[in-house]
Amino acid sequence: MSVVVTGVLSIFQNEQPVHLSENGLLVAIEAVGMILLWIKFSYFLRIWDASNYLVRMIKEVIFDMGAFCLIFIIVHLAFAEVFFFVSADS
Prior knowledge:
Blueprint: H1 2-13, H2 24-44, H3 49-64, H4 66-89
C-alpha cells in the first residue's frame, strides 16, 4: 500500500519513486511493514470456521520451527565463515 502511495505522490511531484531511490533503509522499513500487514490480515481470517484451523496451524508450525531455524542459521553462518576464509587465501 505504501509503495502505491509513494508512487502516486512521486507522479505529482515529478520525482523518482522512493522505492527506486538510493534510500535502502526506507525500502527495508516498507518491506517489514508489508509483512506485518499481511500477518495481521491473516489474523482476521480466523473469523470463518473454514480458515480458523488453518491459520492456527500455520502459527503453531512457525513457532515450533523456532529452534530448528536457530540451529540452521548457526550452521549456515559457520559454513559461510569457513568458505569466506578459504576463498580469502586463494
